[in-house]
Design goal:
Layout lengths: L3 H9 L8 H9 L4 E4 L8 H9 L3 E5 L3 H13 L4 E4 L5 H13 L4 E4 L1 H4 L2 H9 L2 E6 L31 E5 L4 H10 L7 E3 L7 E7 L3 H11 L3 E5 L3 H13 L4 E4 L5 H12 L5 E4 L12 E6 L6 H8 L9 E7 L1 H13 L4 H14 L11 E3 L2 H7 L4 H13 L3 E3 L3 E3 L2 E4 L3 H10 L1 H13 L8 E2 L2 H7 L4 H13 L3 E4 L2 E3 L1 E4 L13 H23 L4 H8 L24 H16 L3 E2 H5 L7 H13 L3 E4 L2 E4 L1
């Protein structure tokens, strides 16, 4: 077989590995269980893709991110590397075909969501495969100490019994020492073996700006910092509102969230990647797996609920090594909103039971049924139908997921597919007897290949246009031919999926591990407090992030807002709020000159008060008319 470097050069065109890719790959090729901790954009996928090609057999890659799996398979196929992905929402026959190809067809990388990996069908076929590596991406999901715990990850190690000599490679961008230890224990490493690179990014300036008028400040930033920009917000409505605001100010901006159709998401993503759109305003649904190195600014309008999530999202800036900025716009209400989110994230058990009972009714699922089944899921429709609060319901669903009752996936786009169920003679007879379907069948045969042998993807919209037929009529015809057992037609899916990982039980018999529930509650509280401290504490931003990720004695970065001396007077968030309230009380009833206003404070505080007044004027909170200051 070719060496790792030869494979890198042949398929990726790189002359050398980045640090520490080569050492990680060598460790894997020596059959050592390996944990790789590498920052966002550090080239983690190379660490399992290259060794997969160095040996006979297939590498099984476990990932919870369907969009990332699909993107990596697409990129591998473009490099003429045989890769496939199996995830929630796919048809049984398509899964069956892919698994067979992994045994007999030369597939080199098989991507699986964790719940699919653990299915009986997958385990039976994996036992027959020649597996050369088990790669676990987003490995922090295995640890309840981490920020994105997913129960199916706990069972990944069970697969090792099928191929006990095959090494495991676990990868993640963010892990504290607790999570690092947990990953190795849960995946049953034969020996501790960790490659940890520093998360420090010398080219990335972390900035926290205390801002009330966030939109105006953001506009100033995007006008000043040229190049591709990602702006993260918490809710879907805000993505559209903020993008519209920027458009009205002359910026090439667009919005993105998981509620858009796959066509819209793909178009918006491609326009941004190809620089037709400069600024994308998004929820955290955007950016995972997108390899765009020239992002100059990642801005957060809302405070994330964990520093791990913030670090990953901010890390999408400056992957090309050039100067870039990660800016957090923060105000006092963000702290209140995050604390309220904490309360909403842990609803009472009675409400969790109510949501679980409603799920059974929504899918008309009998008690004792449903295990392993996946269903299209529309959260808005679900909450309207049962008069449930949408935020509380979403958190209840996440708890049911963490307790192992369901899996809730992101929106999954599975294109329409069909296969012909009869032989050519029978098909010809059907065409003669059903002349109104004849031209449709001819068009299907003309525009696809192999439909007598396996499922073939079709695009109804393009087909309807070619046939000069409206799409509703075409779909009706396809369904009728399916009813006649001439074809098997699987319409496209484009919605999130719910998978019942256990058979449905009655809501009264629903159980959760209350001890673990309390533990997760404490960990969530710890993470939100750390996020608030990052925003409010006057300490080098990079140093704070690195210390949180257990990089001890981290140096100051020299380029963040703190290191550049923007907080020389050590004006804390608490002081800012206190001075602001007193200034408001003094100005609300009547205007004042600057001199008279300053004299209301002791001499030793006047320098800081002046800074607060300057800030309030710049934000438009205080209006300056001639020599007088007035509270708006």
């Amino acid at each position: 077989m070719n060496s790792a470097l030869q494979i890198l050069q042949k398929y990726w065109g790189y002359s050398n590995f980045r640090e520490p890719q080569e050492q990680i790959i060598q460790s894997v090729l020596e059959d050592k269980d390996t944990l790789a901790l590498m920052p966002t954009g550090g080239g983690k996928s190379i660490c399992f893709q290259v060794p997969a090609l160095c040996r006979e057999g297939v590498c099984i890659v476990v990932s919870p991110l369907i969009a990332l799996m699909k993107d990596q398979v697409y990129q591998l196929k473009r490099r003429n590397i045989a890769a496939e992905a199996i995830y929630t929402g796919m048809h049984y026959k398509e899964i069956d075909r892919i698994l067979d190809n992994c045994i007999y067809g030369g597939v080199k990388l098989l991507y699986l969501s964790p719940e699919r990996l653990l299915s009986e069908l997958a385990q039976q076929r994996i036992a027959q495969m020649k597996v050369n590596l088990l790669a676990v991406d987003e490995a922090h999901c295995i640890s309840q100490w981490g920020y994105d715990f997913r129960p199916p990850y706990l069972q990944i190690a069970d697969i090792r019994a099928l191929h006990p000599k095959v090494p495991i490679l676990a990868l993640t961008a963010t892990a504290t020492k607790e999570v690092e230890k947990d990953i190795q224990e849960k995946l049953k490493f034969t020996a501790k073996n960790v490659f940890r690179t520093s998360h420090a990014r010398a080219n990335l300036a972390y900035v926290v700006l205390q801002e009330e008028a966030k939109e105006n400040k953001l506009l100033q930033m995007v006008q000043k910092i040229k190049g591709s920009t990602i702006i993260y917000v918490r809710n879907r409505k805000k993505t559209k509102d903020l993008a519209l605001f920027l458009q009205q100010k002359g910026e090439k901006a667009d919005f993105y969230h998981a509620g858009l159709s796959s066509e819209e998401r793909n178009r918006k993503q491609e326009d941004w990647i190809n620089n037709k759109t400069r600024i994308i305003v998004s929820t955290n649904a955007f950016g995972m797996g997108i390899d765009k190195p020239d992002v100059r600014l990642v801005a957060h309008i809302d405070l994330p609920d964990s520093l791990e999530a913030y670090f990953q999202e901010a890390g999408r800036a400056g992957r090309d090594g050039e100067k870039a900025y990660a800016a957090l716009l923060y105000c006092e209400s963000d702290k209140f909103n995050l604390e309220r989110s904490y309360e909403q994230s842990f609803p009472p058990f009675s409400f969790i039971q109510q949501v679980y009972r409603a799920l059974g009714s929504y899918f008309q699922l009998a008690v004792g049924a449903g295990q392993g089944q996946s269903y299209d899921f529309d959260l808005v429709d679900f909450t309207k139908k049962f008069s449930l609060d949408i935020v509380k319901t979403h958190t209840a669903l996440k708890i049911l997921e963490q307790e192992g009752w369901i899996v809730l996936t992101e929106a999954v786009f599975v294109p329409s597919q069909f296969t012909i169920l009869v032989n050519k003679d029978e098909l010809f007879s059907y065409q003669l007897e059903h002349l109104n379907y004849d031209k449709i069948l001819k068009a299907l045969l003309r525009t696809t290949q192999g439909s007598f042998l396996h499922y073939t993807k079709i695009k109804e919209q393009g087909l309807a246009k070619a046939l000069n037929m409206d799409i509703a009529t075409l779909k009706k015809a396809l369904l009728k031919m399916q009813q006649d057992k001439i074809i098997d037609y699987i319409p496209q899916k484009d919605k999130p999926q719910i998978v019942f990982t256990k058979e449905r039980t009655s809501a009264d018999n629903l159980t959760i591990d209350h001890e673990q529930y309390e533990f997760r509650k404490q960990r969530y509280r710890y993470r939100t407090k750390a996020a608030i401290r990052y925003a409010e504490h006057i300490q080098c931003r990079s140093q704070q992030l690195l210390e949180y990720l257990d990089e001890e004695n981290a140096p100051t970065c020299g380029v963040c807002d703190v290191c550049l001396g923007r907080h020389e007077d050590k004006l804390s968030q608490e002081e800012l709020n206190n001075y602001r309230e007193k200034i408001r009380a003094l100005l609300q009833n009547q205007p004042s000159t600057l001199k008279l206003l300053i004299e209301n404070f002791t001499p030793k505080r006047q320098k800081k008060v002046l800074k607060v007044i300057e800030y309030l004027v710049s934000e438009g909170i205080i209006e300056q008319q001639a020599d007088e200051l007035k509270w708006r």
